[in-house]
Amino acid sequence: MVEVLIAMLLTIIAAISLSSMMPLSWQAAGKADLLGRATGLLQNELEWRQYQAMRGVDPTTLEYPVDGQTIGIGNTNFTVKTITSPVAGNPNTWTVNVRVTWPGNNYGVASSMRVTRQMGFNNLDNS
C-alpha cells in the first residue's frame, strides 16, 4: 500500500511539473507560427519582385503590393515594407529589401535579394 501511495505521489508531482510548462510551449508555438507566416510573406514578395524584373518590368515602378501595406493572415496583421533600389553602374540590376513586421514585433523578419532583368525569360510568358 505504501508503495502505491509513493508511486501516485511521484506521478502527481510529474504531472504538475509538466503542466506548468504548457504556457511556455504555447507561447513558443505561437511565436513559431507568426515567424513562419511572416517568412512566407517575405519570400513571396522577394520572388514576385524578381519575377517582374526578369520579365523586363522595372521593379522600382511597381505599385503592388503597396509599400507598408497591412496583410491579414489568420488573426494577425503583418506589415510588408519593400525598398527597391538600382545598382550603380548596372541599369538592369536592382537590390530588393523586404521587411515584414507584426504587432508585438517591430523588427520582424528581413531579407534582400539582387534581381536582374533577363529578357529571354519574358519569352516564356507567351507560350
Structural class: alpha+beta
| Overall morphology | rod-shaped
Percentage of β-strand residues: 25-35%
* Number of strand elements: 4
Tell me, rounded to a whole number, the average pLDDT. Answer: 85
Tally the helices: 3
Q: Name the CATH class.
A: Alpha Beta
Report the biggest beta sheet as strand number plus sense, adding barrel if it closes: 4 strands, antiparallel
Distance between the termini: 81 Å
Determine the oligomeric state from the structure: single chain
Question: How is the topology of this model organized?
Answer:
Elements: H1 2-20, H2 22-54, E1 69-73, E2 76-87, E3 90-102, E4 105-116, H3 119-122
Antiparallel strand pairs: 1-2, 2-3, 3-4
Describe the fold and architecture.
There is one protein chain. The chain has one domain: Pantoate--beta-alanine Ligase, Chain: A,domain 2 (2-Layer Sandwich), CATH 3.30.1300. It has helices at 2-20, 22-54, 119-122; strands at 69-73, 76-87, 90-102, 105-116. The termini are far apart. By secondary structure, it is of the alpha+beta class.
Labels describing this entry:
127 residues, alpha+beta, Pantoate--beta-alanine Ligase, Chain: A,domain 2, four-stranded antiparallel sheet, 3 helices, 4 strands
Nutshell version of this structure?
This protein has helices at residues 2-20, 22-54, 119-122; strands at residues 69-73, 76-87, 90-102, 105-116. It is of the alpha+beta class and 127 residues long.
